[in-house]
Design goal:
three-stranded antiparallel beta sheet, 2 domains, Pantoate--beta-alanine Ligase, Chain: A,domain 2, 271 residues, alpha/beta, Rossmann fold
């Protein structure tokens, strides 16, 4: 497994693979890898000859009051996991490589980016779309894989790729969960023992809503068991993330974000 830091080195290796006729997959990550990320690598290996994994904590998707400084980082551990998972190349650029001095171009996203996270983190998806567009244009993969755990992010990226006519297939990979249902997340490391015990109730609540429970009742139940705040718990169209129309034959998605102490958890299930 090769480690590169620059776009030029990345493109040189990918060009070599292209000459050999290889199909290329990209798995974008912010590091602090867990079994969910490794599942993305496994899914990538199933659809491509060569797998590139990016490790980059993107500063433009964090608001000033959010957890950029304390976001977990463990490059050495990540490299060990990726080598064991079968990745072929890791691209870990410094911030200066992605946002050089004088950088002044940003993507503005609407549509699927406006509800839910868009209400509570209004600048977040602009940063996500900008960095993902840069990652895709640097690597030019045939397919890029994203976890369904960040479902609204996946919807926004699909929308961006469609709207900008980018020549890449975006593939979602099902959420990997702990045995008790908690979705794997790098931020789970922030939970205290007591909070970790309560955390699976988020998945339980949205699963009940997917089966017909009233979302407001489910949100109140989360507050009762120990969540400090529920930012949203909503039933949406699975593609547009507009409010779901009762009786519709279109696929739906229940999405939620809630706070346990200082940790914000998100989750979703389809129906």
């Amino acid at each position: 497994m090769e480690l590169v830091r620059t776009i030029n080195h990345l493109r040189a290796q990918i060009a070599h693979w292209r000459e050999a006729g290889d199909r290329i997959a990209l798995v974008p990550t912010m590091g602090a890898l867990h079994a969910g990320h490794i599942a993305l690598v496994g899914a990538a290996l199933a659809v491509a000859d060569k797998v590139v994994v990016s490790l980059f904590v993107n500063p433009t998707q964090f608001a000033p009051h959010e957890d950029l400084a304390r976001y977990p980082r463990d490059e050495a551990g990540d490299l060990g996991k990726l080598g064991g998972a079968g990745a072929h190349l890791v691209w870990a650029p410094p911030v200066s490589e992605m946002y050089p001095e004088g950088y002044a171009t940003h993507i503005v996203v609407e549509g699927a980016a406006l509800p839910l996270e868009g209400v509570f983190r209004p600048h977040h998806f602009g940063g996500v779309a900008t960095v993902v567009c840069k990652l895709l244009s640097a690597a030019m993969p045939d397919v890029a894989l994203f976890g369904e755990k960040d479902y609204q992010q996946l919807a926004v990226i699909r929308q961006m790729v469609r709207d900008l006519t980018l020549p890449v297939l975006i593939q979602g990979v099902p959420t990997v969960r702990e045995p008790d249902g908690l979705a794997l997340s790098s931020r789970n490391a922030y939970l205290s023992d007591d909070e970790r015990y309560i955390a699976p109730m988020l998945h339980k609540a949205i699963s009940e809503v997917a089966r017909g429970r009233d979302p407001r009742e489910a949100a109140d139940a989360l507050l009762t068991v120990g969540f400090s705040k529920v930012d949203y718990l909503e039933v949406c169209d699975a593609e547009t993330l507009a409010p779901y129309v009762a009786g519709s034959e279109r696929p739906g998605r229940v999405l939620a974000a809630a706070w346990l102490g200082k940790t914000r958890l998100i989750d979703n299930v389809g129906f």
